[in-house]
Structures are given as structure tokens and as C-alpha cells.
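Dear colleague,

Thank you for sharing your sequence with our group. We've completed the structure prediction you requested, and as agreed, I am returning the results in plain text so they can be pasted directly into your records. Please verify that the sequence below matches your submission; if there's any discrepancy, let me know and we will rerun it promptly.
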Amino acid sequence: MLSAGRRNVCAMSSKAARERPAYRCDECGLTTAKWVGRCPECQTWGSVVEASAGPSLRVVAGPVTAPAQRIAEVAADAARHQPTGEPELDRVLGGGLVPGSVILLAGEPGVGKSTLLMAAASRIAAGGRRCLLVTGEESAAQVRLRAGRIGALADELFLAAETELAAVLGQVEAVQPDVLILDSVQTVGSAEVDGAPGGVAQVREVAASVIRTAKSRQMATVLVGHVTKDGAVAGPRTLEHLVDVVLQFEGDRHSRLRLVRTVKNRFGPADEVGCFDLTDDGIVGLPDPSGLFLAEASLAVPGTCVTVTMEGRRALVSEVQALVGESQPATPRRATSGLDHARVSMLLAVLERRARLTLHDRDVYAATVGGVRIAEPAADLAIALALAGARFDNPTRPGLVAIGEVGLAGELRPVSAVQPRLAEAARLGFTAGLVPPGSRAEIAGMRVIEVDSLGDALRIGLERTHS
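Please find the predicted C-alpha cells below.
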């Protein structure tokens, strides 16, 4: 039997254990007994906060907001797309903005997110819908100067500079907009939530409040989001789950080309890509961007080959260039731009082993035209032809495009969407296509050649070969 003193001590210890605070990661949900600066599960910094240890609540049935209906009787007019006036942006969104939808547009600093949304907002306002642009990163005067430079001034476009959530919601109450653009969600904070703006708790509360307002008012909303150094959307992962559409804005700051990819879309396809041209006068949609990726040359140049890549559902004709030269140092240099470096190194090894090309003692440079990035294996054959042409100093045959994945044994493997790829190349005037066996593509006005191996492709694709 325990004495009264021992029983009291045990009771106090168990009570202290029950009252000891627990800590939970806002990012992945991991629970720990003590606070840590970095979650040991998801490796996120600053996401571990004290979890509430209050008693569990028993929720009873209450009044409903609207009675349940048969699904066939639910009106679908409220979910119709409304065009923004930017065809490429509408293409990515699936037709335009849906009233009450919330869109997250993420991208690196300086890529052109604010410029694109300013242009879209002015077109929306010019079409008769009221648009409110709330900026938390710049002053109203700075945004006004950009709008004047790109010609984005409209009577129904309202502008406000706010960094407090309550003030943002107050602006919505005052303006009563049809479309809200918040630039950006990481710069707005709430005094009711601990932490600085941009923190996990702050971003979650700001996004949740704006989403509730958008749904209740049937107001289409665009949230601009920052990205981390790895290219992921900054903030809690739940942010991407809460919104209806997630768009990724990509582009090299040294290139004019900008791509908007659909990562998630509840109202349309999730594999679309929009192409834009960023100029000094603003950003312009490119309905036919293939011209940016082809070099303008009247004569065939050794070390070049044309391929067709698929960006979502869109076929883009791209050109690959290569240069092979004598190597002065003991270790030859390998440099790539717009191509996967590891993929090019693998193709060099395949060319040397399977096609008997001497490349181990030479400098090799490979790049794309127009700043486009090519990562899919369907461009392997074009890269190999460009490298072989540069090594032999021979151009590829005129009017030829090459599509196919190259295996380590030198075989050509089939790729997807060969028919639309060749159709896009034929539209631009190409007359012959090298493709893997079994493609079964037929294009009017184009000679489709199926090849089994890399050696056959080099013999057919290059005008002449040397040993």
C-alpha cells in the first residue's frame, strides 16, 4: 500500500504530465514533447508550435446552410468560366476565372507575376467587371507607374496598398470587387495571430480568411505566392490544398520567354501551359511561341538539330545546338544551357561507345535556342544528332526533325504524342521526321522515317558521315 504522501506525489506527477504542453508541426502534423526549431520529420524551419491540450468537444447536429439537393438539380451556372481577356492565361485556367474561385500564382522574384496580373486586371476592368488590386510589396505610386508604362489603366480597376488583413478585408467591403488580386499573401499579416507576416501561422490565417470572403461573395481571387530556393511554394503545404487552382510562373530572367504551368485546377485540365513574351512595354501572350526557339539561318549549320517537345498539351518546336572542339587542358570541359547536364553526359557516353565517336578528349558545349528548357527524354535523338554533327562538322538534312529517347544500348525507345509533335513540325514547314519504331505516325506532306538504333539515325539524319 502507498502512503498518503506517495499517492499525492504520484497524483501530482501524473497531473503535471497531463498538463505538460505538446508541440505540433503545422506542416506535417508531427507531435513532439518539446519544442524544436526544425521539424525532424519534414525538415521545415519554424513550423513547430505549441498544440492546444483542451478537452475534446462533442459536436451535435445543427442547422444547415442549405438543404441537400439531387446532384442533377444543382445549378452549374455559378461555376462558369469568365474570360480575363488574356488568351494564354485563359488557356491555363481552363477558360477564365470562375466566380468564387481562389487561384495561387507562384514564381521567383522578378519573373513577371505582378506585370502579368496587372495586365489581366486592366483587361478585366475594361470588360466591365470591377477589379481590386491590393499590393503589400510596393507603394500605390510604384504600382501606378508600372500600370502607366504597360498601358494598364482602367476606370473599374482599383488599387490599394495594405499589409494588415483587417484592412484588406475592409477594402473589399468598400470597393465590392468582382475580382481580387492580393500581391502577395506572404506580405499580409493579422494582429490576431502570433508571428511575423510570411510565417506558417500567418499565411494560413490570411489565406483562410481571404478564401472565406471569396466564397461568400462569389469573388474570384488571385493570391500571389513566393517560392523557396528549391522552387516550391513558400508557406504551409495546406495552402495549396485550400486554393482551387495552383499556377507556377517560370522563366529565366535573362530570357524573354515566360511559361505559366497548371499544377492544380479544379475547374479544368491540370496539364496546360501558357507562353508569354516579357518586353519593356509589358507582357504579351504567345499563341505560336515556336518561332522563339528556332534560329534564323539561311544555310544549314553543323551541330544543330530540331526537335518537338510537349509542354503540357502544347507541342513546341525547339532547336538544339552543339559545339565540339579540341581540348587544351587535361580534363575536357562539358557545358550545357537549357538541357539536363546529366542527360547530355549520358548521350556522350552512348555516342562514344555505340557510335564509335571520339569525344572523351574534346570540349563539348550544348544549348537550346531562345532560353527554353528541355528535360524530357524525347529530345535525346536531336541532342545526339547535334553532337554528332558538331563532331563530324556536318549539318543535319534540311527540313528534318528528330524525336526519340536514346537508351544506353543505343536503341531508340518510343515516346508519347508523336502524331501531334510531327503535325506541329509540318505546320512550320518541316518535311521529314526521324522517330522511334512503332510510332505509326502519318502526316500529310511529311516523310516519317522510323529508325531502330542511334547508328541508323546518324546515317540518315546527317548529310554525310566520316569515320
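Summary note from our side: The two ends are 96 Å apart (CA to CA).

Kind regards,
the structure core
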